[in-house]
Amino acid sequence: MHVRVQSCIAVTPRVNVYALAATSGRPLPPYAPGAHIRVRVTATNGMQELRSYSLIDPYDPAQPYRIAVQREHEGQGGSVYFHDHVKAGTEIDILPPSNHFPLNPQARHSILIAGGIGITPIFCMAKQLQSQAQSYELHYAGRSIPEMALHAEVTTSLAPCWRIYTDDEHAQSGMSCADILSGYQPGHHVYVCGPAGLIQAVRELAQEHGWPESAIHFELFSNPLAKQAKDGDIAVELRQTGITLLVQAGTSILDAVAAAGIDCDYDCKVGECGACLTKVIDGVPLHRDFYLNEKERQKGDAMCTCVSWASSEKLVLDL
Fold first, then answer.
1. 123 and 59, same structural domain?
2. Do 65 and 140 belong to one domain?
3. Which of 40, 68, 98 represents a domain boundary (last residue)?
4. What digits encode the pLDDT tens for the residues 232-268?
5. Domain range for 212
6. Which of 42, 121, 158, 306 allows an S-S link to 254, with CB 3.0 to 4.6 Å?
7. Does a structural domain hold residue 210?
8. In this structure, what CATH number is given to the domain that contains residue 177?
């Protein structure tokens, strides 16, 4: 889809909020809270790539999509491209919304936890739950108030069931995930988005306090497990295509396959959605995703190529 940037607003020194409207003038496709769009950008290597950005507001056909982009100097260039080249009036290509982080419609109470830029899908959830008079609470943490992209919107547009936590000298108290998650009750669901460390802490603490896996929901913006210093180069044979690639450590298998001109499905690129799940014919995968369960990992017959690696020197994939 072709969209035009209606506005670009710097809400913090590192975060811009972009409003996107269809160039055709027609309403953009509907979505549910937790959804994201993929935007075509130019990465630092000069390649055209897709980057995912969460939608900030509940769907309204009369309103543009809004996304927030945090500039990451050590990233792969998507955020740098946005901040340097995408302004009001710029036309860009996006894919329709998809959602791997939906609200559970049967929840009796929703606990929403956001860290940093992870507030974007969480704010959308809070607005939707508030509009439907559903029970929820919001916990929003950041380094400081000036660095919290949606602080003003949270504190002015949501009912007072939110708490703000900062790490600076003005902080009254830090966010205690153990306290937030201590009282599990059937029908309660927790949703968390933000740094990987926060997500891991919430998942572990929720399980310790008796939360079932089905009530714990999360969305990652990056996967710190994907690239590790101990990794060595591997050979990846693509059985259907009939070629073998030498994939260097630090490059994902998915990116290497795409660079070879081979079409393959993907979406999140952090090992969460399962879109890139590929059959393993031979070799031993090192699973670094959050999609497969432990039983599926032990079988070793499929892997998420966006983040997982190999303990064997060669993998044979059904591609």
1. no
2. no
3. 98
4. 999 999 999 999 999 999 899 999 999 899 988 888 8
5. 109-220
6. 306
7. yes
8. 3.40.50.80
pTM value is 0.85
261 & 214 share domain: no
